[in-house]
Amino acid sequence: MDITLKAFIKKTNNLQEELDDLIVQEKELFFIEYLEGQKVPANNYSFVEYTKKVKKLIKVIQDNKKIIADYNAKTITKYNNLNINECLFYLAQLNSYLNVRLNDMKVYKQENKTFLDDGNVKITKYLFNSEELKKEITSTREEINAIQEAIDYANLTTTVK
Questions:
Q1: 159-160 vs 3-4, strand pairing mode
Q2: pLDDT of residue 110
Q3: Is the sign of the CA dihedral 148, 151, 154, 159 positive or negative?
Q4: Which DSSP string do the residues of the chain spell out, in sequence order?
Q5: Where are the domains of the chain?
Q6: Per-residue confidence of the chain (161 residues) as pLDDT tens digits?
Q7: What domain of life does the UniProt record list for this protein's source (predicted)?
Q8: Angstrom distance (rounded) from CA 65 to CA 59
Q9: CA 114, 119, 123 angle in degrees (round to 5)?
Q10: For the chain, N or C: smaller number of CB within 10 Å?
Q11: Nearest to 155 by CA among 32, 72, 79
Q12: Distance CA 126, CA 130 (A)
């Protein structure tokens, strides 16, 4: 059965959620509580059975992620003929550049005055042009959007067999 890469990724993410839910469910069942002197409540929890279920899901998820990694490596996007993996790496770099550097800089005014206790005024002048910063933020966001669109398009048009 053929499925788009996007749907296959979603299916794999759903399996991961199923695994997480299974582990949460197990945490609710792997113990019993009762008062001393009372009958021990029945519980059909089996560590062995849960281990089998967990390992089976882990194996399927691992196999799916290998397939996704393979398709990400060989699927060329419309963004500068980069494959999906290369786009993902570049996207991470640009997001870091935007959030760690540019967005941090935009909170500063060009010049800041602080009145000191001794009556002096301390001036802090930032040496970057705020208009250039705004342009760089805009162009970086546009590039991030273009890369994301290229990845999304590739995920929608690539078929996993």
A1: antiparallel
A2: 86
A3: negative
A4: --EEHHHHHHHHHHHHHHHHHHHHHHHHHS-----TTSPPPP----HHHHHHHHHHHHHHHHHHHHHHHHHHHH-B-SSTT-BHHHHHHHHHHHHHIIIIIIHHHTTS-SEEEEE-TTS-EEEEE--S-HHHHHHHHHHHHHHHHHHHHHHHHHHHH-EE-
A5: 1-74, 76-161
A6: 799 999 999 999 999 999 999 999 999 999 999 999 999 999 999 999 999 999 999 999 999 999 999 999 999 999 999 999 999 999 999 999 999 999 999 988 888 899 999 999 999 999 999 999 999 999 999 999 999 999 999 999 999 98
A7: Bacteria
A8: 10
A9: 30
A10: N
A11: 72
A12: 9
Residue 6 CB burial class (10 angstroms; 0-12, 13-18, ≥19): middle
Structure tokens at 55: 């390992």
* pTM of the entire predicted model: 0.80
Q: Which residue has the tokens 């792997």?
A: 30
Nearest to 72 by CA among 15, 139, 12, 17: 12
DSSP codes joined into one string, 43-83: ----HHHHHHHHHHHHHHHHHHHHHHHHHHHH-B-SSTT-B
Contact 54, 19 (CB under 8 A): yes
